[in-house]
Design goal:
It is a single chain. With 269 residues, the protein is of the alpha/beta class. It has helices at 18-29, 44-56, 71-85, 108-136, 165-185, 212-219, 230-241, and strands at residues 9-12, 33-38, 60-65, 90-93, 147-152, 190-197, 252-255. The protein binds NADP nicotinamide-adenine-dinucleotide phosphate (NAP). Residues 13-14, 16-20, 37-40, 43, 67-69, 94-97, 117, 121, 152, 154, 197, 199-200, 202-205 line the site of NADP nicotinamide-adenine-dinucleotide phosphate (NAP). NADP nicotinamide-adenine-dinucleotide phosphate (NAP) binds at residues 13-14, 16-20, 37-40, 43, 67-69, 94-97, 117, 121, 152, 154, 197, 199-200, 202-205.
């Protein structure tokens, strides 16, 4: 069955790069109008390049600058999108950063930076999205759901990660945010789920794949023996945004080539 997201507006945070750009392209290919969000003026060109590719393939969208960790900017972004595009049907909470350090050396700035973007940013955008979903109500011409939120979490939602306490904590917390929202707004027909990627080839983790040695070492963690691509995540996002997944809410879906089967136990532990 062909999935159509026609006439639906999707906001993908942090979509000037990597997984977010991949998701924006996939949602657009399924007919959604996409909002390519980028955080700072320096990323505008990259956002434009993503939109150019989408437009070149016949898709529709806009770019929008907003730092998702800033409440006033997020509120304004939603107001502007609703004014210009009518509503928002799909929110993909994707923007995320890493500021790695051994725990004893981790500064409060490193901790706060990661929690502010990865967790608070997802809270702020989800709150504004739910307000808009409830204001608009269900539009059966578009979807049987009142709105869809997809959080981009990580395998580190469940796998502890030494040297990345801030990042792993942010992703663990996203699971509870996602499940609480799914519970609180299920009766309103708002579906809320998380995608938990394993190793995906993007700029956030270049050192994990940019040399043969690094890639070989990474592949020892992945039974399926390849690194993931943004399009892998895009395909799942399309499914979760569509009515094909209408009975899925409150779920964390791992998309990791089997990383969470804990490959190091493959020889018996
Ligand atoms: P990426 O290529 O670095 O993309 C992150 C995006 O977020 C960029 O567009 C970035 O813009 C944007 N961003 C950063 N701070 C922002 C802010 N304050 N407001 C709005 N946008 C902001 O990394 P990625 O791998 O695609 O990561 C996307 C998401 O996937 C993250 O949540 C990450 O934790 C998650 N994830 C990635 C992997 C992986 O293996 N790659 C695995 C599991 C989970 P700039 O580039 O301009 O900073």
């Amino acid at each position: 069955m062909e999935i159509s997201l026609k006439n639906q507006v999707a906001l993908i945070t942090g979509s000037s790069s990597g997984i977010g750009a991949g998701i924006a392209k996939s949602l657009s290919e399924s007919g959604a109008t996409v909002v390519i969000n980028y955080p700072f003026p320096g990323a505008k060109e990259q956002a434009e390049a993503v939109l150019d590719e989408i437009s070149g393939n016949g898709g529709k969208g806009i770019i929008y600058q907003c730092d998702v960790s800033k409440e006033d900017e997020v509120v304004k972004m939603f107001q502007d999108i609703i004014r210009d595009l009518g509503t928002i049907d799909i929110l993909v909470n994707n923007a995320g950063i890493q500021k790695d350090a051994k725990f004893m050396e981790m500064t409060l700035d490193q901790w706060n930076a990661v929690i502010s973007v990865n967790l608070t940013g997802q809270f702020l955008c989800a709150r504004e999205a739910i307000k808009e979903f409830l204001r608009r109500g269900i539009d059966p011409a578009k979807s049987v759901a009142c709105g869809k939120i997809i959080h981009i979490s990580s395998v580190h939602e469940i796998i502890p990660w030494a040297g990345h306490a801030n990042y792993a904590s942010s992703k663990g917390a996203i699971r509870m945010l996602m499940q609480t929202l799914a519970q609180e707004y299920g009766a309103d027909r708002i579906r809320v789920n998380s995608i938990c990627p394993g190793a995906i080839q993007t700029p956030i983790n270049t050192t994990a794949w940019d040399t043969k040695e690094a890639l070989d070492s990474l592949l020892t963690l992945i039974p399926y023996n390849r690194i993931g691509q943004p399009a892998d995540i895009g395909n799942l996002a399309v499914f979760l945004a569509s009515d094909m997944s209408d009975y899925i809410t409150g779920a964390s879906i791992f998309i990791d080539g089997g990383m969470t089967t804990f490959e190091s136990f493959s020889t018996g532990g």
